[in-house]
Amino acid sequence: MLLEKNPKQVGKTRSKASAKSSPRARIPRQRSVPPKETTPVEDTASEKGPVHYDWRKYSDKTGMPLPSGDLVALDITKIFGEEMGPGLGNRILRILQWRRESGSLGDFGISLTGDTDVTQEQCLRGLEWLRANFPVDEEAAAEAWRERELERLYQVMEKDSQRLGFYKRDDALDGVDLGQPQQGTEFGQRYARSELAAIREENERRWEEKQKELEELEQRQREQRPPREGQEEPDVVVQARERLSRRTGLVLSADRSADYIEQGRQAREKYNKYWEEKAQIIKDNEAPNMSAFQRLWPSALVTAATLGFCILLAQTYEPPTQSGRLWPNTPPALSTCVGILLANVAIFILWRVPPAWPTLNRYFALCPGYPIALSNVFNTFSHQQLGHLATNMVLFMVIGPKLHEEIGRGNFLALYLAAGTLGSFASLTYHVLLRRFITSSLGASGAVYGILAAWCLIRAADHLRIPFTDLQIPLSSKQLLGVMLALELFNMWTGKVKGVDHLAHLGGYGAGIAGASWLMWRASERRRVVEEKRRKMGFLERTFNVPPSAGEK
């Protein structure tokens, strides 16, 4: 199962299972009481007022203390809610206060670097509280911040230019007042003429010469090959060809082939953008205001119904006759697995068809921000990336036919569908409870890992053989399953593997283990019944009757 950042996905969501940085919010600046002085203010305290701190002594990483000091847990709860602790809440307020005092709020925004658990909404609440309790002239502070940044960048550029030899400082002009009437002239500038400016002027002169030559050449070609009688070349086509000529450095004739390529590209972009906007369910990246129960209960009902269908399928499925099969000359195990493979490939191809995006976004991608109940089942057949599809299907085609031969088609299909659905619901529940709404999930990983877990338990081999070779590994199948589970938990805990839905994988493992345990219990019960009947048979029955094993399915 892969967490996708799909450009066509709902509200442009695809990435935050692991996307970690959110776009900076545009913060309206507040203008309040102007500062009384522009000189640095020392940290002072008065008997009647709060402590005033100088923001220059602090940084954006730690923030600056609030004038009233850190807030207690009750105040933090009133501002951010019950899920916010006093330590993190005070840290958010200190950082936002430093950005307000320093004027860097417009550049840094309200997002906290590295704190993925802090949402934009929580930061906005803290900012509103600070503005209501500690007025600051944010516009004046932002203007001062911009001036300081410009001066700092200018000094950096000056040092780099001197180091690279583009610019040579004239120390004789330092401190010399050239006078207001001469400002704006070559001799009225503070610094001497730089070599970088001379290089730029030379490049501009060469570009103008090439441009003139290109125009003359195009004019000659136009005269030699005029348009057909009764037709005039539109100005927009001429301008487009000229733009392409300047961009590529090639001389384009009036056959309009390059213009057709450019127009086709623009038409495709417009076409794709239309279907992207039409496929969006959530606008402006804002999830609907719904409780966790409202988001989960429809998917929970669909999951329960799917599990009931899987149990019924496993109990009642009867294989068709040889003449009734679609591919009678193909082994049943291979036919079943190839059918599932073709279904996944078909959905992968549909993701390349823009008119299919609205349907695929609703039913073949799981989005915690606005979950569609049926997507909990259908997303297990959906892939957007070729690497994701290839990884899942290769593993499925290696393990799937072997497990199918062991348990039969009905049990195999039921196990595949149940593992994928339970993995999707586990992922949905996890992201909803953590309020990670700007993300989406899709893929057959949960179902494939469920098949793999069931194979490891049912096969119960003491040694593993590498596929397509005679090499064996001294590792039992159950030990392999334990290693894979441990690796999945480790990756989930450390977060080093980005863009992977670990909860869907674990849900698939759990469904596969439960399904395999149930199948093995059913097999043991059938053997127990047969042994019980055999013990109750008399001598003549055991001698002349049909062996009890014939009653086994």
From TrEMBL:
Top-rank lineage group of the source organism: Eukaryota
MF GO annotations: serine-type endopeptidase activity
InterPro entries xref list: Peptidase_S54_rhomboid_dom, Rhomboid-like_sf, Rhomboid_protease_S54
Disordered: annotated segments: 1-48, 217-238
Pfam families linked: Rhomboid (PF01694)
GO BP term (any one): signal peptide processing
Keyword tRNA-binding attributed: no
Membrane topology qualifier: Multi-pass membrane protein
Compartment(s) where it occurs, according to its Swiss-Prot or TrEMBL record: Membrane
Sequence ranges assigned to domain Peptidase S54 rhomboid in this UniProt record: 378-516
Keywords, comma-separated and alphabetical: Hydrolase, Membrane, Transmembrane, Transmembrane helix
This protein's GO CC annotations: membrane
Major localization listed first in the record, in broad terms: membrane
Protein's name in the database: Peptidase S54 rhomboid domain-containing protein
PANTHER family named in the record: PRESENILIN-ASSOCIATED RHOMBOID-LIKE PROTEIN, MITOCHONDRIAL, RHOMBOID PROTEASE
Positions with biased composition (Basic and acidic residues): 217-231
Family designation: Belongs to the peptidase S54 family.
Membrane-spanning residues: 296-317, 333-353, 412-431, 437-458, 503-521
